[in-house]
Amino acid sequence: MNTIETEHVIIRSIAVSEMANNVYLLTARETGSQVLIDAADDSEAITELIGLSAQDTEADPKLRAIITTHQHWDHIRALPATSANYPEAMTIAGAADAAAITEAEGVEIAHSVDHLDVGDFGGFVLQAIALRGHTPGSIALLLRDGGQTILFSGDSLFPGGPGKTWSAEDFTSLMDDLEERVFGELPDETLVLPGHGDSTTLGEERPKLGEWRERGW
User: Fold this and answer.
1) Is the pTM of this model over 0.90?
2) Which of 87, 122, 129, 216 is the most buried (most CB within 10 A)?
3) Which segments of the chain are extended strands (E)?
4) Mean of the pLDDT values across residues 64-88?
5) DSSP three-state, residue 27
């Protein structure tokens, strides 16, 4: 388990499944409000993660939302069980991926989001950034808190490059969105927490944008 602390939020994460998917849980220190990002697999481990976070707040913790960054099967396998375990938690996903998630796992997405939509979760705010290409409805989630900027990038941005795409058009779409909506708007010190593997910063990746464009992946 990894832990990151900002002024008002504690972020705990675990890696689950044979694909080492990152599952993130945000807990507001003052209110106990929680958001889970990507119920990827292993609902028991996710329940344990949520339980352990009770120590991160003096308030009664409450899972307010389960947000899915994109529709791919390895990011949604525990969504049915986790949603059933926490029925008061709103299910959220990008608008263009919501129907596919429901079809794949039978979980109704209660709230679909578009680019720049903002959610106030009672102790912190998350903004959706649509990054089209890895899937049509992929979203990243932006947290700004106490001078820190953290981007939960799903499978759209990793150390060393963008997420996988399946056509030249999808690659161009993803790179255009990354350059305009992420690198063009956010500072170098932004911490990037991806859907798999290690974190990075925008400052570390920014010099490589031209290389990514040239190689085409």
Assistant:
1) yes
2) 129
3) 2-5, 9-16, 21-28, 33-37, 62-68, 90-94, 111-113, 118-120, 125-130, 139-145, 148-154, 157-158, 161-162, 191-194, 200-201
4) 98
5) strand
